[in-house]
Amino acid sequence: MKIRLSIAFLLIASSSVLFAKELPNLVVFLSDDMGRADSSVYGSPDARTPTMEKLAANGMTFDQAYVASPSCCPNRFSLLTGLMPARHGAHANHTEVYPGTKFLFPILDELGYTVASFGKVAHGTREFDGLNYHSRSSRNMSVAVRKWIESAQLDEPVCLLVGDRRPHVAWSEESTYDPDEIHLPDYLVDTPETRSHWARYLTDITGMDEEMGRIHDIASELFGDDFMFLFSSDHGGQWPRGKWNLYETGVRTPLIVSWPGQVAKASRTDAMVSWVDLIPTLIDAAGGELPQEIDGRSFLPVLSGESRGHRDRIFTTHTGDKIMNIFPIRSVRIGKFKYIHNLRPDAYFTNHSDRLRKDGAGAFWDEWDEAAKVDPKAAAIIRDYYTREEYELFDLEEDPMEYNNLAWNPEYKEVSESMRKELAEWAKSQGDDLKAHREPYSRSEPIPDLRGQ
After folding, report:
1. Measured on CA atoms in the order 346, 349, 352, 353, is the torsion positive or negative?
2. In whole angstroms, what is the distance from residue 393 CA to residue 391 CA?
3. Nearest CA to 52 among 225, 216, 249?
4. Within its chain, how far is the Cα of 348 from the centroid?
5. The predicted structure's pLDDT at residue 408
6. Residues in contact with 384: Cβ distance below 8 Å, sequence separation at least 6, in sequence order
7. Which of 191, 206, 250, 277 falls 20 to 30 Å from 234 in CA-CA distance?
8. What ranges do the domains of the chain cover?
9. In which element (H, E) is residue 283 found?
């Protein structure tokens, strides 16, 4: 094993490393497909997430944290590279980055860290550059972490990465929540199957939270108080307006960071940050030098209390997911306004949920179709799900759920045109061709039945 580089670190450390005397130990815990609002920390009346509450009480909660893309593969590659999807190349789900794309974790390895990954950190639990140890299983990671610690001789700083598969579908068959007592979001059709599936979704969130608690306990045993703990989720859950969408329920994510003695307890921030910023922040905390050409920037000054802001605009992108979801979208948020460009409004928005309708995933859609035959509200929810206007503009202060499209309102013409231009210029600077990864499903034809594909 490498020797702890305390003396060398003192010679090269950045002044932004707060007051740490040694390389800080770093722990990152990621959930898979969890909506920001579906936690007690972020206002859920139902979700039991005591570990998140503990982290929030001991650290900083971010209210304006965003992913780069609401799809696993492109967003997790953005985490690993600090690049937005058009730049690293894996813009659609289940694709690969451009040859020669540089990852960020080798920087921590060069600083003297042992970098260990357990479960789903990269897409598909694959390995990535800069790892010293990798365990693929995304179940019972705390058991694997403890076994690894017992066998390894850790005489150096550690960067521990743990990715839980929950609450990714298929959700647990057994539920610890009463479907009759839960509160459904108003963008869902209230049916018995919807309630059953939402209860199962919440069950997986609580199970993930419990596993995170075990990982936090292991880190405390190993490091004492000498570690930063960062929790986030890769995008919203597999529900309408969640995963694969650029609405807030798809791209706004939970983010909580604790670091005893360095981050103020029970603090909360409105600073806008992106997933491309997460690993640059870890590198900055360790005194490493960030590549100049990446999109990510360290928000360490926000954690230290030296700054109240980070980004003044947030860009998010989505291209598609194999044959189930073919609907490219781009968006920008500036201040209270969010602007969305649906690049193929002539196509249906669909995904695995409504096309496959599997138990523990989208089986509730059959009840939705029946409800829509007699309930105008249910019919409107389904219509708004499948079809999108080309441009959407929302005032997030007045309309946080993004129901009232202002893009065609004459009072907002100047805002709309300005944000449309800025989004187009940003996409051009990214080398984004603004195209679907394959031809989408035209609204001039019936929606295809893709079951069995």
Report:
1. negative
2. 7
3. 216
4. 24
5. 96
6. none
7. 191
8. 6-13+23-305, 315-429
9. helix 278-285
Residue type (1 letter), 309:
G
Helix axes 278-285, 72-81, angle to 10 degrees: 20
412 CB burial (10 A radius; 0-12, 13-18, 19+): middle
What superfamily does domain 6-13+23-305 belong to in CATH? Alkaline Phosphatase, subunit A (3.40.720.10)
Show the beta-strand stretches assigned E in 113-191. Answer: 114-119, 133-135, 158-163
Q: Sort strands 267-274 and 59-66 into parallel, antiparallel or unpaired.
A: parallel
Hey, do 6-13+23-305 and 315-429 end up sharing a CATH topology, with the first three levels equal? no
Q: d(Cα 206, Cα 292) in Å, to the nearest integer?
A: 39
Q: Which CATH class is domain 315-429?
A: alpha beta
- Helices and strands (DSSP H and E) totals, the chain: 14, 12
Distance from C-alpha of 134 to C-alpha of 423, rounded to nearest angstrom: 38
Which residues are 321's β-sheet partners?
93, 325
The set of residues, in sequence order, having a beta carbon less than 8 Å from that of 284 and lying 6+ positions away, is 14, 16, 17, 290, 298, 300
Give me 376's structure tokens: 């105008």
Q: What is the pLDDT along the chain (453 residues), one digit of tens a residue?
A: 433 333 232 333 333 344 345 899 999 999 999 999 999 999 999 999 999 999 999 999 999 999 999 999 999 999 999 999 999 999 999 999 999 999 999 999 999 999 999 999 999 889 999 999 999 988 899 999 999 999 998 888 999 999 999 999 999 999 999 999 999 999 999 999 999 999 999 999 999 999 999 999 999 999 999 899 999 999 999 999 999 999 999 999 999 999 999 999 999 999 999 999 999 999 999 999 999 999 999 999 999 999 999 999 999 999 999 999 999 999 999 999 999 999 999 999 999 999 999 999 999 999 999 999 999 999 999 999 999 999 999 999 999 999 999 999 999 999 999 999 999 999 999 999 999 999 999 999 999 998 877
Cβ partners under 8 Å of residue 242, min gap 6 = 33, 35, 70, 235, 236, 249, 250
CB atoms < 10 A from the CB of 34, how many? Answer: 29
Dump strand ranges (E) for 351-404. Answer: 391-395
Give the contacts of 101 (CB within 8 A, at least 6 positions apart).
81, 83, 88, 89
